[in-house]
Amino acid sequence: MKRIALIATLDTKGEEANYLKELILKRGHRVIMIDVGSGGLATITADITADEIARAGGGKIEELRASKERRQVIEVIIKGAIAKLKDLSKVEVVDGVVAIGGVSSTVLASSIMNELPFGIPKLIVSSGASMPGSNRFFGPTGITLMHSVFDIGGLNNLLKAQLGRAAGAICGMVEEEIPSGSPDEQKPMVAITTYGYTENCARYVCEALKERYEPVSFHASGVPEIAMERLIGEGFFTGVIDLVPSSITNALHGGSRTSWPERLEIAGEKGIPQVVAPGGVNTISRMGFTADALATELKTRRHYFMDAQRATVWLNTEEARSLASVYAEKLNRAVGPTKFLVPLRGWLSIEREGAPFYDPRANKAFADELRKKLKIEIELREVDANIDDPAFAQAVVDAFEEVMKLKGG
Asked: Pick the residue with more confidence: 57 or 287?
């Protein structure tokens, strides 16, 4: 028997939530009903009531129901639900979480679920799953979003069929646990960031490490990087190879590939051995922009269009130099072995001698300034290769083996 938390607004979705609960019970699992409704009285009994949720969030349910400040109400409910779920997990294991509702319920449920560990399966069944921008609900902790197709506002045979599939989905998810393997079989996991401009490097590194380690790659596009660092914080990884920390640059220059403020800090603060490279650090990603839309910027910046809607633009020398202090501040938080490898012949696969956007002077300005700012314990090592060359990949592997030995791995 697994324990599945079911999140719903029981003032408006009580009948539907109860139907889903019965389906899960028939499959042999237990349901912990959590009421996050704030509009009126629940129509069915909850294991964790809206009143308890409100109090855990620092409010009173009567005041929330009377309030016209919807945003503040939602914030209290989210805070309270997270607190109650965390309290619950101290008493008994929560094996999975499922939520049902429309767009408002999905916003609420995803905010709650994104505070839970990756290891807990999470499913949201929503009529808003097909709306533009619904991808923002996925978050970094493994949320699965299922389109209910029909409005969750009154049971009918078609909605019952979808709820039946949802019951099968969450039950299957909690039954399929992450395999741990025996101590003799399990290899230490290594997190690796990559994207198209460093694909060959990452592939070579993974191939070279797979005999001793289990490499896990994360696409450096924002949310996957947050997921990686959340998992680092949860203790999943023995080491980190961060080829593409460029979301920091994007955040500072309004680029498309951004992650979160803690980027490049978690592994270092936990003392996890890491090797870092400057993949894309000297560039800003522009996604969803045509050449006409970027015309003003493109007059002053080196640039490259991947396709009609995606452009990479390069920083100038002074911007690159000033950026080094930001990266150094984050790297200097490291209490474990850390090395920073600089490829002298380009920081993207396309950034090679002769290309119109290749600017070794700006790259050198960043590297020289970074060397000055890094604490003495962190080695900056230059490699006479492009970041996507086998020679650089081998240098990354060698450096990683060194930091693992320093840690005793």
From this structure: 57
